[in-house]
Design a protein that fits this description.
By secondary structure, the chain is an all-alpha fold. The chain has 30 helices and 2 strands. The protein has a two-stranded antiparallel ribbon. A hairpin with a 2-residue loop joins strand 1 and strand 2.
Length: 687
């Protein structure tokens, strides 16, 4: 009682400052007094009869007096103190506080005054933080006793559906704010959405009379507009996806991702009506109206950024229904007469910007990792199903050609002699410098390909394949092999593991895509005719891009070959035979991966003739990659003692860029990987 008398004296003194700033001294005194009062209230035991302190607060209408003092003062500090007092009291007291009008009425008036005051402000204040924290605490109180929900509807006309529910409507404006404020608001909304399933009046308010779905999705569009359109400038060159370690450099990305994850959670827990509205608005207001124009903007950096953002968004979504909307947008949307999917594919052809190519490849890695039938149908299978790419006499062979041995041998036969010599040179140097931590069979970890996308590791040693090696793939025990053969065996094991993973990911598909079928005509273009196949823009672009791999930067080659690897891991025979079979005869106009790889072999062999000691340089490039010491150039003049035995240095030394040397190493490893996949494909089905 004496403490309250002290508080009353302070309030009388504060009453002098109507619409004026309160002296800091008085604010400090009030804060000290309220802080001292709080433990006494919290310590009271709950029961049928309220404790002494609670009785006094109810009888003297203490909270209403404090509320009136807060609205008379021009200072926000009193509001913040009172909000904090309510939060701590409600969170820690064991007494049923909200059943007393003298507690809940000034509480609701306080909430109204704070909410109105914040509507006209553009920046977050201490009162915002205290308000949202209190609202979250109230949501948690209601979650423990759903009967209290009605207390936060207006007392009059309780059956009218448009009655506003205070907690929900006051939290909603904060759901897209930066953390920690935004997190608290989103957590509170999620609690209320869960409560709505057990409270018809709250459910009716959320579904029929709140603007929740519009605020939720409209806020996403607003947040996207704040994302930087010049990512390469902000985070530098050499990246191809927005890994989490880059997020701190772009706080707007963190804020957007948090809101997207919230949308994902809402779709998971909300009733079907809310879920369907959110999905429809996400497609119409965000994807079509915001993302589609962004993909078609003239600014290259802008298109690069939107591609990186779209990849990030897909990676954050776990709810199937929401992911489906993003996939439908990618595969079906048209903007100003241009198909969004085709626009994105064409970004791979922009030779003037290698980074745009890399970021776009990264997007396709992410899409293929979904193992989504619609993605693969639109990118690949609607073009392969009619089998127009195959000579008519060969179409019956799709799904029947056994290429286990011939395909592996074909890919391995494309390894240039200089690459084979480089392997031996590298292994010899490693044997001489071997230590407990290194060995000639150490893996070549191409970080951009393997760790970011779950792709098979790219190994450093290739096979000198023989009958024994090809027949040992199904052995459960590693056979006695030399280091080069053992490394190829590792490739086989990687291929087997990943083929099983891809097969499991496609189990729910509606079709097997194993041969030309009766639905093939449904996927033909209206303008396509007999002998003129309508090729997949995606496959044509990617295979053409492989043909230029000797001129690509290292990270582009890793992404490009990794994408082909992903495609070859799909278990559908139509695609596997298109990529891997050396026996199927395809029409001349159709892009042919094996033919492209054969042409690259010829280019490398020409380089071997032009550049003396190329095999030694390739061996050094291999070592550089293994040790993750990628340099801008690798112009090393090789001493004659490191050249192969009997080789003469009769020609003048010429320089070859590190990028080209790295490309040769990647090409070599790519061939071994394709050979292993082709060999292992037949363990699941026959081509």
């Amino acid at each position: 009682k004496s403490m309250w008398q002290e508080t009353q004296q302070l309030l009388q003194e504060l009453s002098q400052y109507v619409d004026q700033d309160v002296p800091p001294r008085l604010l400090r005194q009030l804060n000290t007094t309220l802080s001292a009062m709080l433990p006494l209230i919290i310590c009271e035991e709950g029961g049928e009869v309220p404790g002494v302190c609670l009785q006094f607060i109810v009888r003297e209408n203490v909270l209403d007096t404090l509320y009136k003092a807060s609205v008379r003062s021009a200072s926000e500090e009193i509001k913040r103190m009172l909000l904090r007092l309510y939060q701590l009291w409600l969170g820690k007291s064991s007494q049923p506080l909200l059943i007393y009008d003298q507690v809940i009425d000034p509480l609701k008036r306080l909430l109204h005054s704070c909410a109105r005051q914040q509507q006209d402000k553009k920046h977050t204040s201490a009162v915002d933080v205290a308000l949202v924290n209190l609202l979250l605490e109230l949501c948690e109180v209601l979650s423990r006793d759903v009967a209290l929900v009605d207390l936060f509807f207006p007392k009059t006309a309780p059956d009218i559906g448009h009655s506003k529910f205070l907690l929900f409507s006051f939290l909603l404006p904060y759901i897209h704010d930066e953390d920690p404020l935004g997190t608290s608001a989103r957590d509170g909304i999620m609690i209320l959405l869960g409560l709505s399933t057990a409270h018809p009046r709250l459910l009716r308010y959320v579904t029929e009379n709140s603007n929740f779905c519009t605020v939720l999705v409209g806020g996403m569009a607003g947040l996207y507009s704040s994302l930087p359109t010049d990512l390469p400038v902000q985070i530098g060159d050499g990246w191809h996806r927005l890994d989490r370690n880059l997020w701190p450099e772009i706080p707007q990305v963190v804020n957007f991702v948090n809101s997207l994850v919230f949308v994902n959670s809402v779709v998971q827990v909300a009733i079907p009506g809310v879920t369907q509205t959110v999905l429809s608005l996400m497609h119409d207001l965000f994807l079509v109206q915001v993302m589609a124009p962004a993909f078609h903007q003239p600014n290259t950096y802008g298109r690069l950024s939107v591609t990186a953002y779209f990849t990030l968004f897909i990676e954050q979504i776990t709810e199937t229904l929401l992911l489906r909307e993003f996939v439908h947008f990618f595969t079906r949307s048209v903007y100003n007469g241009k198909v969004v999917m085709d626009t994105i594919i064409k970004q791979l052809k922009v030779d003037s910007n290698k980074q745009l190519c890399a970021v776009t490849l990264s997007l396709f890695h992410t899409l293929l990792n979904l193992h989504c039938e619609e993605v693969m149908l639109q990118l690949v299978f609607r073009y392969l199903l009619p089998c127009d790419h195959i000579m008519p006499s060969q179409r019956h062979c799709v799904g029947e050609v056994d290429m286990s041995k011939s395909a592996a041998e074909k890919f391995l036969s494309l390894i240039p002699d200089c690459c084979s010599r480089a392997e031996k040179l590298y292994n010899q140097s490693e044997e001489k410098a071997s230590s407990p931590t290194t060995s000639p069979t150490e893996s070549l970890q191409f970080s951009l390909a393997s760790t970011s996308h779950g792709l098979p590791d790219v190994r450093q040693d290739g096979p000198s394949v023989n009958e024994h090696m090809l027949e040992s793939a199904n052995m459960s025990v590693v056979p006695a092999l030399n280091p080069i053969e053992l490394n190829y065996y590792k490739y086989l094991m990687d291929a087997r593991r990943n083929l099983k993973r891809y097969a499991a990911g496609c189990l729910s598909w509606s079709q097997v895509y194993d041969k030309p079928s009766g639905i093939a005509s449904d996927h033909r273009s209206a303008g396509s005719t007999g002998s003129l196949p309508r090729s997949s823009l995606f496959l044509c672009t990617v295979i053409d891009k492989v043909g230029d791999m000797l001129s690509h930067p290292h990270h582009v080659n890793l992404l490009l070959t990794g994408l082909i690897t992903q495609l070859s891991l799909f278990p559908q025979p139509l695609l596997a035979s298109f990529l891997l079979s050396p026996n199927l005869m395809m029409k001349p106009a159709v892009p042919n991966l094996i033919q492209v790889l054969t042409e690259i072999k010829g280019k490398i062999e020409e380089l071997s003739e032009e550049y003396e000691g190329l095999d030694v340089k390739i061996a050094r490039a291999r070592k550089t990659l293994i040790h993750r010491e990628v340099n801008d150039s690798l112009h090393v003049k090789v001493p004659s003692t490191q050249l192969a035995a009997g080789e003469e240095r009769s020609r003048p030394q010429k320089k070859v860029t590190s990028s080209k040397l790295f490309a040769i190493v990647v090409y070599h490893e790519f061939l071994k990987e394709l050979a292993a996949i082709a060999q292992e494909q037949t363990s699941g089905f026959s081509f």
